[in-house]
Write a structure and sequence with these properties.
Blueprint (H helix, E strand, L loop, with lengths): L6 H17 L2 H8 L7 H11 L17 H14 L5 H15 L2 H13 L4 E4 L5 H4 L19 E6 L2 E12 L6 E8 L6 E8 L5 E6 L8 E13 L7 H37 L1 E2 L2 E2 L4 H28 L6 H22 L11 H15 L2 H11 L11
Helix pairs in contact: 1-4, 4-8, 4-9, 5-6, 5-8, 8-9, 8-10, 8-11, 9-10, 10-11, 10-12
Length: about 400
């Protein structure tokens, strides 16, 4: 692995940071959160037009930039710094890889160019709270999470030449605003039980979408109710859907790890700036040894998480699955940085008007959606057979 960045990668980071500094400051961020979509469409259009952000990791044949997961992850680090609310994660890191991996030639030709241009956004809908399981981040994604029999979830049945979906998905990232939904559904009953992915337009009949109140307002979520909704099967019936979800999950974990590292770095930076200004007993509190030690610990943890996240982004493109472990380290670093930021900001750190709580909620929200951290690590250990055949002292 080459630890240095290319000139192109540095340019992506610099341009994206400049754009987000101008277009996603604290006031604009809060204004975007209050819109029905939960993000600023003008900012999303700028990210798509100027940087080609949605198609960064898509092939040029489909209108993408043709970069690797590494560039996608570096871009996510910058969006994480700004806590930029956008369809970037749901569209570019979750939906697009699945369409590329499973879609028919016609589906790829129709959908991927629109996703790459940013004119179409997409979301992955998984029943219940099973997103991390479906992506094989916290356990084996054997398919039971999709529901079946009396287990609820989303059921799929054939209707002539097409399919019909019935059920509900409660925590769908950008599900209330996405133009296209990739819905994971169970079909086949007990005899031929399997999980498939279906394409559902956002304006489909018999589809009810509601924006949910989420812990992390910068990560919009929607509830989908499918009431015998017409759907199109993604790819072929015999495709390896669970394998594709696991591969997409590892890619998404590497991207999320870099995003969390960016947020942790920004939270730490703001805290350092504050302790240099706030005075107590006639001197800045940042000059106190105890404060220095606490911030030094946060810095070391954030840098270790950055190294793991960069390696995961590099290794994912080469078939090595380490995204979940890097994500665990990054989420822990973000939670620590955000918590210390609130503590060292004192009284103002607890106020609604200050930004500190937004970083803490991002850490807690991602831990609920994609973790928790201890399960990410436990699954990584099980996958590596770290404790297989060994006695562990209790």
């Amino acid at each position: 692995m080459d630890a240095g960045f290319t000139a192109e990668q540095d340019e992506i980071r610099r341009t994206l940071r400049e754009l987000l500094d101008r277009r996603c400051g604290p006031e604009r961020l809060r204004a975007a959160l209050d819109t029905p979509a939960g993000h600023d469409p003008a900012l999303w259009a700028a990210l798509a037009d100027r940087l080609g952000l949605p198609g960064l990791a898509l092939p040029e044949a489909y209108g993408g930039v043709g970069c690797s997961v590494t560039e996608l992850a570096l871009a996510a680090e910058e969006t994480g710094r700004a806590l930029a609310p956008s369809p970037f994660l749901a569209t570019a890191a979750l939906a697009a890889p699945l369409i590329r991996a499973l879609g028919t030639a016609a589906q790829r030709a129709e959908l991927l160019p629109r996703l790459a241009s940013g004119t179409l956004t997409a979301a992955l809908a998984v029943p219940g709270t099973a997103l991390a399981t479906a992506l094989a981040l916290t356990g084996d994604n054997g398919g039971e999470w999709a529901g079946g029999g009396r287990a609820g979830g989303v059921q799929a049945r054939r209707a002539g030449q097409g399919w019909r979906l019935y059920g509900q998905a409660e925590q769908v990232l950008d599900g209330h605003s996405a133009g296209l939904l990739l819905v994971a559904a169970h079909t086949g009953g007990f005899a031929r039980s399997r999980t498939l992915l279906f394409l559902v337009p956002g304006d489909a009949a018999a589809l009810v979408r509601t924006r949910q109140t989420a812990l992390d307002a910068t990560r919009s979520q929607g509830r989908l109710q499918l009431r015998d909704t017409e759907a199109e099967l993604l790819g072929e019936d015999g495709a390896d859907v669970l394998g594709a979800l696991a591969r997409a999950g590892d890619t998404a974990a590497a991207v999320l790890a870099c995003e969390a590292v960016g947020a942790a770095d920004r939270a730490l930076q703001r805290t350092v700036e504050y302790v240099r200004q706030r005075e107590q007993f006639g001197r800045p509190i940042g000059s106190f040894q105890a404060v220095k030690h606490r911030l030094a610990d946060v810095y070391v943890q954030a840098q270790a998480a950055r190294s793991a996240a960069y390696y995961a982004a590099w290794a994912t493109a080469r078939g090595e699955r380490v995204g979940g472990l890097a994500l665990a380290q990054a989420l822990e670093a973000l939670r620590t940085a955000a918590a210390e930021g609130i503590q060292l900001h004192g009284g103002i750190g607890f106020t609604w008007e200050h930004e500190a709580h937004l970083y803490f909620k991002r850490a807690a929200g991602d831990d609920l959606l994609f973790g928790p951290v201890h399960r990410l690590r436990a699954h990584a250990a099980d996958t590596a057979r770290l404790f297989a055949g060994r006695e562990v002292a209790v």
